[in-house]
Amino acid sequence: MTEQTPPAYPLPLVAIVGRPNVGKSTLFNRLVGKRLALVDDRPGVTRDRREGEGRLGDLTFRIVDTAGLESAAEGSLEARMRQQTEAAIEEADIVLFMTDARAGVTADDIRFADLVRRAHRPVILLANKAESRAGVAGSYEAYSLGLGDPLPVSAEHGEGLGELYDALRPFFPEPSDEDEDEPGEDAPLRIAIVGRPNAGKSTLVNRLVGSERMLTGPEAGITRDSVSIDWEWNDRRVRLVDTAGLRRKARVIDKLEKLSVADAIRSIKFAEVVVVLLDATMPFEKQDLSIADLVAREGRALVIALNKWDLVENRGQAQKDHREALDRLLPQVKGAQLVALSGQTGEGVDRLMQAVAAAHEVWNRRVSTAALNRWLEGVLERHPPPAVAGKRIKLRYATQPKARPPFFVIFGTRTEELPDSYVRYLVNGLRETFDLPGAPIRLTFRTPDNPYDKG
């Protein structure tokens, strides 16, 4: 992103450690924004400590990629690699201890978790490769390491970066720049404006901030970098990011455009709310739906904005048709906020920010365990899971371990045999019962740890 200002504090040193092949170099590359570290499926590719400047949202830090921790004979190459990793731990201000959620906790994980614990450094536990249902379930095994709550992440797909940001934030000083708010104020609301080329993103940004901050014009593709702008709305700090237009992948040939697209996608990953801007005269084209689906898969709060509303005739019918099309074409975010506006005239722009605030509130919403289990009990009475091969699927209880987006876990037996239609039924029930319109709800299943519970 452009317009990065240097931090007014010494950069903390963050070390990524763990046994070989858990994805340390992949996370390193993602945080530095470049492929500085070689990545391969074979363990042991990384040997030396590799340092770069990492960024996550508004946090800047030095980050070190290390060799995989493994047992080795004294004096061997592997032992010297381990010494390098141990030195990185000693020098680090923060340690990211990474495990493989798909493989579960291994003897080496346990051994080296003890080594990290003895170093008396702040530790953030990451359960990597948690993008699948099995991976998320496996991430809970990492609780046994005694390093705190594991954060399910996917370094390869960029999932869980919002939670990693939240875990790192307390280790950084509050901004002390004279233009910043007093310490203790809430962090700025991070909003990304995305869409196809020439949808009017830069015009909308200029209208929101009240100045010609972004270059605009009739030509598509004027914006190349993702540009971050700090401003205030209703006394609330906002960090607004204007991005390059996203075309279909097959049409992106120019190298510079590829970099711009990658920057725009990275802005989605770091945002809390993403406004997908559509041209109201030709909305819901295939690329619009692909962008909205990407936002949902990244777990960001979503607002759909219909720009150029001043050019639309018969607005009442058009609004009704667009609402129906949105819920039909994007059922995974049913009920998402839909706002008609004109960046050119300013019509509807304040409604957009109200919709952003509402979507952000839903994205952060938590449901009590008691309320969840009352809901689950009612669901099972009205519509129990179908039997599979003559055997009942039992759903025992539910909980919400985290929000941003709302993430629910249901414990039971033979849950892997639940049909997709029943999982969708549960998700829709959660959305309707707990008023979660538009939220990209995450639902996973786990088997209780009781070895005597055979269902």
TrEMBL record:
GO molecular function annotation: GTP binding
Sorted UniProt keywords: GTP-binding, Nucleotide-binding, Repeat, Ribosome biogenesis
The keyword Nucleotide-binding appears for this protein: yes
GO biological process entries: ribosome biogenesis
EngA-type G domain: residues covered: 12-176, 189-364
Alphabetized SUPFAM superfamilies for the sequence: P-loop containing nucleoside triphosphate hydrolases (SSF52540)
Key word Lyase present: no
Residues annotated for GTP 1 binding in this entry: 18-25, 65-69, 128-131
Function: GTPase that plays an essential role in the late steps of ribosome biogenesis.
Family: Belongs to the TRAFAC class TrmE-Era-EngA-EngB-Septin-like GTPase superfamily. EngA (Der) GTPase family.
Subunit structure: Associates with the 50S ribosomal subunit.
Protein name (database record): GTPase Der
Native organism: Methylopila turkensis
